[in-house]
Amino acid sequence: MKAASVASPPAGHAPARSPLARILANTGWLIGGKGFGALCGLGYLAILTRALGLKEFGHFSLIFGAAQALIALAGFETWRVVVRYGARHVHQANWERFGRLGMLCGLIDALGAVLGCLIAFIAFYGFADLLDLNTAFIDMGFAFCCAMVWALVSAPTGMVRALHRFDRAVYVEAIVPAGRLIAAIAIWQTGPSVGRFLLAWALVDLAEAACYWAMARRLCPRAVRLSHLRDWRLALRENPGLPAFLLVTHAGGSIDAAMRHGPLMAAGALASTSAAGLYRLASQLTQALGKLSALLTRSVYAEIAHSRVAADAGGFRRLAVQTSLLAAAAGAIVVTIALLAGEPLLALIGGSGFTGAAALLVPLSIAASLELGSVAFEPVLHASGRARAALACRILGMVCMATAIALLFDRGGPGIAWSVAIGSAASYLGLGATVCSTIRRKGRS
């Protein structure tokens, strides 16, 4: 009787279904939540652009982009570690090992936040002039970045995803878009400023972080315990290869952040703050249209990790092919929507002052569709023990993007946007070829 209770799943553990059915169900929950988030996002983005104007919105965009880049640089994407190694512990219902792994990753998140604060200090007090950032925004930009790196909730996010509780995560993740929209309306009515918007964004993200830890604790109370923190050495022994995997995925996340936020910084440094504002608005719109890539990544990554543990080689290959075809079709839809409705949406959200962002929509939507089309590639390579190969493909894309920016930056925002599309295409081709090779190799073994 006692043994049965040890092996029983935690409260709210998801019922068994086929891998593709779980991916679609999890993505459905995420789409529901992110659909709500997208509507809120368009609302507060419209308020930001109209309340601040092009120049001030450019300053806000540079500070926010710097924070997002710092999160990727200092954060270790420990959710991938929890899902990659925790899938076996969840499959075996070993909640003590799962808890030690999750709390080790939480400790890594905290160390990353400390590192992020140090990097933010150097960036804002040493290189703010390179970004054409007004000196009045340096202190608040530094404080905002510190708050955002501490609001990173990677470890509990991974625990919730490893347990397949995407339905519960939807409610927690609704806090950010809803909170930002409410705050934006209040600030707009009482006196908008860059500092007030940054403060509201930081407080909302910190609230989400606290709620995510509370949700992980509620779903698996035997795992989320402070007592597991002292067992970090045991967690490392129980999950061989974890440090190497952590470093490789961290490097990949940093490269992804460089490709996502580097062009925004380049627009500010090589062109102007106003150019950064235009790039930010166009990028936000295409990312909103391509949000499905992030949603599919979350559900696909978890399911492929579980499938690698529980399924045979044939089932693993079928899942990889099915998710890749699904993502490719979604990518084509993203480009079509951006081409047909992108420019009217820009005018609706930003007003006449932001119509210059229309020239950036085509290349950025192509980049978003390529990112969406490759959504299953990295999870397959990580689950197959080829994380370094995935990293090499990301490096290839970053090098191609940086080279293109160096050649095209004199064309302003459109040149930088096409550089992003070129880098995304290089990553897509490299990852696709590597995945095909990996699947063929698995089929022969």
UniProtKB/TrEMBL annotation:
This protein's membrane topology, according to the annotation, is: Multi-pass membrane protein
Question: Is Membrane one of the keywords?
Answer: yes
User: What span is annotated as the signal peptide, if there is one?
Assistant: none
Keywords of the record, alphabetical order, are: Cell membrane, Membrane, Transmembrane, Transmembrane helix
Chain segments annotated as transmembrane? 27-47, 59-83, 104-128, 140-163, 170-188, 194-215, 325-342, 354-377, 389-409, 415-439
One matching Pfam family: Polysacc_synt
Highest rank taxon of the organism: Bacteria
Primary location group: membrane
Cellular localisation: Cell membrane
**Which InterPro entries does UniProt cross-reference here?**
Poly_Biosynth_Transport, Polysacc_synth
PANTHER family per UniProt:
INNER MEMBRANE PROTEIN YGHQ (PTHR30250:SF31), PST FAMILY PREDICTED COLANIC ACID TRANSPORTER (PTHR30250)
| Stated name of the protein | Lipopolysaccharide biosynthesis protein
Source organism lineage? Bacteria, Pseudomonadati, Pseudomonadota, Alphaproteobacteria, Sphingomonadales
